[in-house]
Write a structure and sequence with these properties.
- The protein contains 9 helices and 8 strands.
- With 231 residues, the chain is an alpha/beta fold.
- An 8-stranded parallel beta sheet has the order 7-6-5-4-3-2-1-8.
- The radius of gyration is 17 Å and the shape is globular.
- Bound molecules: pyridoxal-5'-phosphate (PLP).
- Pyridoxal-5'-phosphate binds next to strand 8 and helix 9.
- Pyridoxal-5'-phosphate (PLP) binds next to strand 8 and helix 9.
Length: 231
């Protein structure tokens, strides 16, 4: 998806240490005093043999973009590392909300009323209440998930006030071919206006920029695990 402009360090532990250093440095150059930043290690497409070394190196927060793939990989890993925090960062179909609630601690791609209603209903039934991010399509790209920025206020109100969903913040994926900074700034502004504390923004190619604009969660895949073959 995005280019990684540096060599991947030789071991997973070294790659992790390197990313954590870059996060710490980016926080120092943030526009406003930077909030703590949580690194989500995006392990989609990678098998347990690639994930375990990061767990052994102390990483506990991971992201997957498909419910089925996560279901196949994570129950065994979670049995060995019960304090893992698993984030669903990809789109969620309303008919998979039960499975998603069972497996994930945080869900990032809430973007339509039907899904919000399905999540509210399943939360009521199961008592599981993962934290939620509302995805905003800051670039208004037709093929991309997320609510349009102009629709965000109404959708935030529906989720938070009407459905009482545990919405903690906003998430975006800027257009691949644009400067991401204005998109991060827009997401940060929307979050501020609605008193939402968390900002999920920034990937391998742009997480330092995202941190300068106030990211509290960065989603980093290829800079940690190396290139993915496909997805
Ligand atoms: C794959 C993915 C990432 C990680 O992308 P990299 O460029 O490999 O860091 C981040 N966020 C989402 C939503 C993704 O699907």
């Amino acid at each position: 998806m995005s280019s990684v402009h540096e060599q991947i360090p030789a071991t997973p532990a070294a790659a992790l240490a390197h990313i954590l250093t870059r996060i710490a440095q980016a926080r120092k150059s943030a526009v406003a005093p930077a909030a703590p930043v949580t690194l989500i290690a995006v392990s989609k497409t990678h098998g347990p043999e690639k994930i375990r070394p990061l767990l052994e190196a102390g990483q506990r927060v991971f992201g997957e973009n498909r419910v089925q793939e996560a279901k196949a990989k994570w129950p065994a890993l979670k049995a060995d590392y019960p304090d893992v925090e698993l984030h669903l960062i990809g789109p969620l179909q309303s008919n998979k909300t039960r499975e998603a609630l069972e497996l994930f601690d945080v869900i990032h791609a809430l973007d339509r009323p039907k899904l919000a209603q399905a999540l509210a209903a399943e939360m009521e039934k199961t008592g599981r209440r993962p934290k939620l991010f509302i995805q905003v399509n800051t670039g208004e790209e037709p093929q991309k998930a997320g609510v349009a920025p102009t629709e965000a206020p109404g959708f935030i109100a529906l989720c938070r006030d009407d459905l009482k969903l545990p919405v903690v913040g906003l998430m975006c994926i800027p257009p691949a071919d644009e400067n991401p900074a204005p998109h991060f700034a827009l997401l940060a502004k929307l979050a501020r206006e609605h008193s939402l504390k968390e900002l999920s923004m920034g990937m391998s190619g742009d997480f330092e920029t995202a941190i300068r604009f106030g990211a509290t969660y960065v989603r980093v895949g290829s800079a940690l695990f190396g290139a993915r073959t496909a997805h």
